[in-house]
C-alpha cells in the first residue's frame, strides 16, 4: 500500500517541473519562450542521467554506506559511499526501498535544476544551462541531500547534539527549493541583467511576462506536482503513514492558497490593482514554504506559513529588481530561495515536537539555513563562476536582441503572429 | 567585494560547525550559531554591495557612451 502510494506520489512530481517551466516561459519574453521550455526538458534529462551515474552514490540513504569525519567524539556523516551508476539493486524489499529513494531523487533533482532557468531567462545559453545543471545534479544537490535525507550530519543533529529531531525537511524546502533558488542567485549575478532592463540613469524598465495565461496555468500544474512531492518526501524520508498523507496534501494546498491571497492583497494595496504575475509568484512561494513542515504542522500553521511567504515575496522581488539590480525574470531567487529558507525555519517554529524541544528544533533548522547560505551558495557561485570562465554562460549581444529562440534554436515559438517593431534592430 | 562576501558566508558556516563541535552547552551553542548566521548575513550584504557597485559602474559607462552621442540609450521592449 505504502509502496504503491509512494510511487503514485512520485509520478506526480513532473507536473511541478512542467508548472515551473510554464511559469518561466510565460514570465520571459515571447522571443525566448521555446528556449525556456526546451531548457526545462534538457535540465530534466541531464540531471536524471548525471544523478544516476554519480549523484546517487554520494547522496546515499539512511543506513547505507557513507564516509564520516570524526572530530573528538563527534561522528560527522559527510557523504554517501554507494555504488556509481546505481548498480547493485536486487529484488528484495530493501533494494526496493533504495530504488524508491533513487526514483524520488531523480525527479527532485530535476525540479531543483529547473529553478535556476527562471533567473537566467532570455539570456542563459542552452549549453551552459546543461553543464550548470549537471554540476547541480552531480555535486551541490547530492551533498546537501545526503546531509538531510541520506542519514547525514544535519539529519543526525538530534541524536548527536540533542537538537530536536535533527533538521526537518520533508518535501525539500531546503534540499530542493532553497538549493535551486540560491543557484539561481549565483546565475543571475554572473549573467547580469538583460540588455535594456536598466537605463543609463539606473531606472529599471518593466519587461512584463509575455503570457500570463501560461504562468497561471503553470501554477495549477505546480500544485498537483507539489502534492506529490510533499507526500512522497514525507512517506519516504519521515515514514509518514498513508492515512496521514491526506493532511500533507491539505497543508500544501492551504499554504499555497494563503500565500496567493497574501500576494494578491499586498499588490492590490500597493499598486491599486492585484498583480497577476506577483500573485503567481506568491502561490509558488506558498508551495515552496509548505514543503519542509508539510508532514508535521497543523493546517492553521500551514496557513500562517503561506501568509508570510506570499506577503514577503512581492517585496523581495522588488528588492532584488530595483535596489540590488539583480534581473530575475521568473522571480526564482525570491520564490524558491527566500521562501525555501523561510520554509526550513518555519518547520522548526510550527512543527509538532516533544515538550521542551522547541528551542533545540529551531536551532537545528537554523543550522540548516546556515549550511544553505554558507555551503550551498558559495559552492553554486564558485562552480558556475569557473564554468563561466571556461564557457561564457551568457548569450552574445545579438542574441540578447534577437531572442534566444532565433539565436539558439533557429526559429521562434510563435512564428506567425508576433512581430516586434524593435526586433533585430541593434542599439 | 563579492569574493570577500563569499568568504564571509563560508566563515559564518564554519563558526556554526565549530559551535556544534566544541560547545557542550545549548545556550552557548545557540549564541554561536546565531553569531555564525550574523556573519553570513554580513557576507550577503557585502555580495549585494558588490553587485550594486558593479551595476552602477556599468550604468555610468553607458551614460558616458550615451553622452558622446554614439549610443541611443535603452528603452522598454514593449
Give a verbal description of the structure.
The complex is a heterodimer of chains A (427) and B (78). Chain A has 427 residues and is mostly helical. Helices cover 69% and strands 3% of the residues of chain A. In chain A, strands 1-2 form a two-stranded antiparallel ribbon. The radius of gyration of chain A is 21 Å and the shape is globular. With 78 residues, chain B is an all-alpha fold. Chain B has one domain (2-63). Chain B is 81% helix and 0% strand. Chain B is built from two helices and no strands. Chain B is rod-shaped. Mean pLDDT of chain B is 84; it is low at 69-78. The chains are: A mainly alpha (427), B mainly alpha (78).
Helix content of chain B: over 70%
Mass-distribution shape of chain B: rod-shaped
Order of helices and strands of chain A: HHEEHHHHHHHHHHHH
Low-confidence residue ranges of chain B: 69-78
Q: Report the structural category of chain B.
A: mainly alpha
Q: Fraction of residues of chain A in helices?
A: 55-70%
What is the overall silhouette of chain A?
globular
CA-to-CA gap between the ends of chain A? 62 Å
Task: Give the chain pair forming the largest contact, with residue counts.
Answer: A-B, 44 and 40 residues
* Overall tally of domains of chain B: 1
In terms of per-residue confidence, which ranges of chain A show pLDDT below 50 for 5 or more consecutive residues?
none
C-alpha Rg of chain B (nearest Å)? 21 Å
The description of the largest β-sheet of chain B is: none
Count of DSSP helices of chain A?
Answer: 14
Arithmetic mean pLDDT of chain B: 84
Strand content of chain B: under 5%
β-strand amount of chain A: under 5%
> So how many helices of chain B?
2
| Total E-strand runs of chain B | 0
Number of strand segments of chain A: 2
Amino acid at each position: 500500500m505504502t509502496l504503491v502510494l509512494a510511487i503514485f506520489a512520485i509520478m506526480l512530481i513532473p507536473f511541478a517541473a512542467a508548472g515551473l517551466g510554464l511559469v518561466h516561459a510565460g514570465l520571459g519574453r515571447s522571443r525566448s519562450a521555446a528556449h525556456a521550455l526546451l531548457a526545462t526538458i534538457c535540465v530534466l534529462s541531464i540531471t536524471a542521467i548525471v544523478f544516476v551515474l554519480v549523484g546517487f552514490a554520494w547522496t546515499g540513504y539512511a543506513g547505507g554506506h557513507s564516509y564520516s569525519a570524526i572530530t573528538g567524539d563527534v561522528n560527522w556523516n559527510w557523504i554517501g559511499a554507494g555504488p556509481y551508476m546505481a548498480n547493485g539493486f536486487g529484488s528484495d524489499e530493501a533494494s526496493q526501498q533504495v530504488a524508491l529513494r533513487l526514483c524520488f531523487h531523480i525527479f527532485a533533482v530535476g525540479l531543483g535544476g529547473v529553478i535556476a532557468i527562471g533567473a537566467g531567462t532570455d539570456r542563459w545559453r542552452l549549453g551552459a544551462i546543461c553543464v550548470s545543471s549537471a554540476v547541480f545534479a552531480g555535486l551541490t544537490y547530492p551533498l546537501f541531500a545526503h546531509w538531510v535525507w541520506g542519514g547525514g550530519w544535519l539529519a543526525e543533529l538530534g541524536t548527536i547534539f540533542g537538537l530536536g529531531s535533527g533538521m526537518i525537511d520533508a518535501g525539500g524546502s531546503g534540499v530542493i527549493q532553497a538549493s535551486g533558488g540560491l543557484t539561481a542567485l549565483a546565475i543571475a549575478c554572473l549573467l547580469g541583467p538583460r540588455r535594456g532592463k536598466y537605463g543609463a540613469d539606473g531606472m529599471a524598465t518593466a519587461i512584463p511576462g509575455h503570457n500570463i495565461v501560461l504562468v497561471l496555468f503553470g501554477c495549477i500544474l505546480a500544485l498537483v506536482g507539489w502534492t506529490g512531492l510533499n507526500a512522497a518526501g514525507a512517506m519516504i524520508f519521515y515514514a509518514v503513514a498513508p492515512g496521514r498523507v491526506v493532511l500533507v496534501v491539505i497543508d500544501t494546498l492551504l499554504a499555497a492558497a494563503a500565500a496567493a491571497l497574501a500576494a494578491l492583497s499586498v499588490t492590490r494595496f500597493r499598486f491599486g490593482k492585484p498583480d497577476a504575475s506577483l500573485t503567481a509568484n506568491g502561490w509558488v512561494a506558498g508551495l515552496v514554504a509548505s514543503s519542509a513542515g508539510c508532514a508535521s504542522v497543523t493546517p492553521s500553521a500551514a496557513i500562517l506559513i503561506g501568509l508570510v511567504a506570499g506577503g514577503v515575496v512581492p517585496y523581495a522581488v522588488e528588492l532584488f529588481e530595483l535596489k540590488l539590480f539583480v534581473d530575475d525574470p521568473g522571480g526564482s531567487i525570491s520564490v524558491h530561495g527566500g521562501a525555501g529558507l523561510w520554509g526550513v525555519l518555519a518547520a522548526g517554529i510550527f512543527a509538532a515536537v516533544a515538550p521542551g524541544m522547541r528551542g533545540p528544533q529551531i536551532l537545528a533548522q537554523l543550522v540548516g539555513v546556515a549550511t544553505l547560505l554558507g555551503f550551498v551558495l558559495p559552492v553554486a557561485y564558485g562552480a558556475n563562476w569557473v564554468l563561466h570562465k571556461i564557457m561564457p554562460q551568457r548569450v552574445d549581444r545579438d542574441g540578447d536582441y534577437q531572442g534566444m529562440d532565433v539565436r539558439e534554436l533557429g526559429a521562434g515559438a510563435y512564428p506567425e503572429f508576433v512581430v516586434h517593431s524593435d526586433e533585430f534592430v541593434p542599439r | 567585494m563579492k569574493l570577500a562576501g563569499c568568504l564571509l558566508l563560508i566563515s559564518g558556516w564554519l563558526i556554526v560547525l565549530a559551535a556544534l563541535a566544541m560547545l557542550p552547552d545549548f545556550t552557548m551553542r545557540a549564541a554561536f550559531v546565531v553569531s555564525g548566521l550574523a556573519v553570513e548575513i554580513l557576507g550577503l550584504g557585502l555580495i549585494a554591495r558588490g553587485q550594486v557597485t558593479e551595476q552602477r559602474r556599468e550604468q555610468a559607462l553607458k551614460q558616458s557612451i550615451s553622452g558622446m552621442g554614439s549610443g541611443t540609450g535603452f528603452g522598454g521592449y514593449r
